[in-house]
Design brief:
The structure holds two protein chains of two kinds.
Chain A: H1 2-5, H2 17-24, H3 31-59, H4 63-68, H5 79-88, H6 93-125, H7 131-143, H8 146-159, H9 166-173, H10 177-190, H11 193-201, H12 206-217, H13 219-235, H14 238-243, H15 252-260, H16 269-300
Helix pairs in contact in A: 3-16, 5-16, 6-9, 6-10, 6-13, 6-15, 7-10, 10-13, 11-12, 13-16, 15-16
Chain B: H1 2-21, E1 43-48, H2 54-64, E2 68-73, H3 82-92, E3 98-102, H4 106-111, H5 133-140, E4 150-162, H6 163-168, H7 177-189, H8 202-212, E5 217-219, E6 224-226, H9 231-245, H10 257-264, E7 270-274, H11 277-284, E8 292-296, E9 309-317, H12 324-336, H13 338-348, H14 376-383, H15 396-411, H16 417-434, E10 439-440
Parallel strand pairs in B: 1-2, 1-3, 6-10
Antiparallel strand pairs in B: 3-9, 4-7, 4-8, 4-9, 5-6
Chain lengths: 305, 441
């Protein structure tokens, strides 16, 4: 993949990086505006990082120190004790929630990506009547917030007795209109018709062409779709809130919310909510770090055309 | 956090309203109670409650009653989404047999025809004697031959106070609200506040009005009346407005770290709260262990004995349940057997609504955090002093939001508490009309 992103260097061009970099630079910025820009960026970085820092600090404190010590600095380091308490609380229901979230988000995002890829590819590479109409409907789907669909989905799932089941949350997660949009744009740009022609001449069927040739070319877009969908499902809250009554099916967002709504009367839950929230963002951070070099290139796709 | 919660509530209520306005046939099954008879054979019930650990209580029932098996479902607390879900489920026809509903939300379910009248189920009317009088008023709305839920827990109010600080500064424990205001001046002179006026817990304020003898709503069988601005409510509002104006009470948002911290560091000395509040102080202000005590709420006239209530919930049977008889039997056991009440108190600090529950051994012991005072004796006495006349309205979420907006403005110097009540009064009447609920003006 790196071959795609590296700038092409003409043979014989000077390879001394420092000089070429200096030459390539545009008009000089005044130090003042640089400092200004850096300050603004610093302020916003802090703005985004302080809540996470606070969450981390809060997670390391015992409940008695939580209220009477500096909220942004360490007191006694109880992080591992807190995690231990959380994990055993009510027979480890928190771990069950994390596992549920991982299944909903992992399997859901994988299948959603596959479906979006097939749909986007078909819309980009095959000509059939009503193609633009279909695509416009999908585009319209991007505009409809998932929250607005939750209640109609609840009534539909009630009709077929699927509420309060795994499927009630999993099936709606498989739909990603944004994924279809992105994969269509990307397939049109990155999968040459000639290559598909060549594959057909070599005797490959359409399905085989898709999986062996096109998917590889569309990979950066697919990673992006996967990541977006994973995050969307992991953070999805309203749909499970409406659909699920069985605690063992909850994703971690709903579970923590349910605990948080009890804090007034059962104050010890506050500690569990905090440490649980801290643990629940770790999978997202790991995923972002692992996939960032793919999704950055995917995100840019379709922006310049 | 408050904003998110509020946004979620609004979104959920909108969703619920959409669901309900789509169709109004949910009432068709409301007369099931007329044939409240035992079923033949084994019955399976579903029960939605958000009390942590209630599964263990239900397991005890299931063990003893192989023919009536109850499955527990759960979710966030009522206003956090479970009520909206109940309305959605009633609409979709798959509501659970039983659900936990707080007293202030019951009228809303009642006007939407979501509750089975259990009065004809064997043993339900007779059970009235087992429950504290005012809690029964909360579930029958003072109607004849009506029982729309079985009372579960209650929140009779009393005054938590820092015994050590009052003593060290030679300030008398106030027994009337006039003395409370005087004590507030004395406490302020030490640089601290006597208490914190909770700007968003309208429920607590309602408890204070309840104690003063006010009633916010009334229902004569056909029409609702709204009295947020009667003389009693205005008297209570003006009293607190005066303390706020003179900077004699702090106004931190409740249930926040600053709020905990004020109690933990001795910056706030009293809290007029419900029985379940004992645990909030103990866990929010751990450094002050042993220094607190509980006294009856200050009275409006010396020698009176009146108390208010803050919180409490009931177990209701939803229309559409095929087994109201069995559901009622389970609800009665859940909320009046000492075994169940003890477990509910241990797992979720529920303070019982059943008379027998007030004498549970676990509620007779001295509590170490409160200097080994048997504090629940004070709450048991308070519970018997709560007026049975107070009625909640059918649109409480909206009323709370409107009044709370006004209260928040008032503590920051814009408007007064009394004005907030006036706004709430107008908005509530409009909300009732908008839902076609008959209302007297």
């Amino acid at each position: 993949m790196s071959a795609l992103t590296e700038p092409a260097v003409a043979p014989g061009a000077p390879t001394r990086v420092p000089t070429s970099r200096r030459v390539a630079k545009g008009p000089r910025e005044s130090p003042l505006s640089q400092i200004g820009a850096m300050t603004v960026m610093l302020v916003f970085t802090l703005y985004f990082l302080i809540p996470i820092w606070w969450l981390f600090i809060a997670g390391t404190k015992s409940s008695s120190q939580f209220t009477n010590t500096n909220p942004l600095w360490f007191a006694d380091f109880n992080l591992f004790e807190n995690i231990g308490d959380l994990v055993v609380y009510r027979d480890g229901v928190f771990l069950k929630w994390m596992l549920n979230s991982a299944v909903y988000a992992g399997a859901g995002a994988l299948l959603a990506t596959l479906f979006a890829a097939m749909c986007g590819y078909a819309l980009a590479k095959y000509r059939f009547p009503g193609r633009e109409f279909l695509f416009n409907i999908v585009l319209g789907g991007v505009l409809v917030p998932a929250t607005a669909l939750a209640l109609p989905l609840f009534l539909l799932f009630s009709q077929v007795s699927l509420t309060n089941t795994f499927w009630a949350v999993f099936l709606p997660s498989l739909v990603s209109p944004f994924g279809v949009y992105l994969t269509r744009i990307f397939a049109a740009a990155s999968v040459p018709d000639e290559l598909i022609e060549a594959a057909r001449l070599d005797g490959a069927g359409e399905v085989r062409t898709f999986f062996t040739v096109s998917v590889k070319l569309m990979f950066p877009a697919l990673v992006t779709v996967f990541l977006f969908q994973f995050v969307a499902i992991w953070n999805n809250f309203f749909l499970p809130l409406i659909m699920l009554r069985d605690e063992t099916l909850f994703p971690v967002t709903l579970g923590l919310y349910a605990w948080n709504s009890q804090v007034n009367q059962i104050p010890e839950l506050r500690g569990y909510v905090l440490i649980g929230a801290l643990l629940s963002i770790i999978p997202l951070i790991i995923l972002f770090l692992l996939l960032q070099r793919f999704w950055r290139s995917g995100l840019g796709a379709g922006s310049v055309k | 956090m408050r904003i998110t919660k509020r946004a979620a509530t609004v979104a959920l209520l909108t969703a619920a309203t959409v669901a309900l306005s789509g169709c109004s046939t949910a009432a068709s099954t409301s007369d099931t109670a007329a044939d409240c008879a035992p079923a033949d054979g084994k019955v399976n019930l579903t029960f939605t409650s958000w009390i942590p650990g209630i599964e263990d209580v239900v397991d005890v029932w299931n063990e003893a009653n192989p023919d009536i098996q109850v499955a527990v479902q759960t979710g966030p607390n009522g206003n956090g989404g479970t009520y909206a879900n109940f309305f959605n489920q009633l609409e979709a026809g798959n509501a659970p047999d039983l659900g936990q509903i707080e007293y202030d939300a019951l009228p809303n379910f009642r006007v939407q025809d979501g509750l089975v009248n259990l009065a004809s189920c064997a043993g339900v009317l007779d059970a009235q004697a087992d429950f504290v009088d005012w809690t029964w008023g909360q579930v029958n709305f003072n109607e004849e031959d009506a029982v729309y839920a079985i009372p579960q827990d209650s929140g009779p109010m009393a005054m938590f106070y820092r015994a050590d600080l009052f003593e060290a500064n030679n300030i008398a424990i106030p027994t009337t609200w006039a003395e409370f205001a005087t004590a507030a001046e004395q406490v302020r002179a030490t640089g601290n506040y006597i208490t914190n006026f909770s700007q968003s817990d309208i429920n607590q304020f309602a408890g204070l009005v309840w104690q003063a003898g006010g009633t916010w709503f009334g229902n004569d069988g056909t029409d609702w009346s709204v009295n947020l601005t009667d003389d009693t409510s205005i008297k209570v509002a003006d009293y607190w407005q005066d303390l706020i104006d003179r900077d004699l009470v702090s106004t931190q948002p409740p249930w926040t770290t600053e709020w905990d911290n004020a109690y933990n560091t001795g910056a706030a000395w009293t809290w007029n709260s419900a029985a379940w509040g004992a645990n909030s102080i103990a866990s929010g202000a751990p450094d002050t262990a042993g220094k607190w005590a509980v006294a009856p709420s200050p009275q409006w006239a010396a020698g009176d004995a009146a108390s208010g209530n803050w919180g409490g919930s009931s177990t209701a049977v939803f229309t559409g349940s095929e087994h109201p008889y069995e559901a009622a039997q389970f609800a009665l056991w859940l909320n009046s057997s000492s075994e169940s009440l003890t477990m509910l108190n241990e797992s979720a600090n529920l303070y019982p609504a059943a008379k027998a529950g007030l004498d549970l051994p676990v509620l007779k012991e001295g509590v170490a955090f409160y200097g080994d005072q048997p504090i629940y004796d004070v709450f048991a006495a308070a519970s018997s002093e709560v007026s049975a006349d107070f009625v909640w309205g059918p649109t409480m979420t909206q009323t709370y939001n409107d009044v709370s907006d006004g209260f928040k403005a008032a503590v920051s110097g814009n408007g007064t508490l009394a004005e907030a009540l006036t706004t709430g009064q107008t908005a509530t009447i409009e909300a009732l009309k908008a839902q076609s609920i008959p209302v007297k003006e």
